[in-house]
Amino acid sequence: MSSTAAAAGGAKTSWPEVVGLSVGEAKKAILKDKPDADIVVLPVGSIVTADYRPDRVRIFVDTVAQTPQVG
Question: Under CATH, to which class is 18-61 assigned?
Answer without folding.
Answer: alpha beta
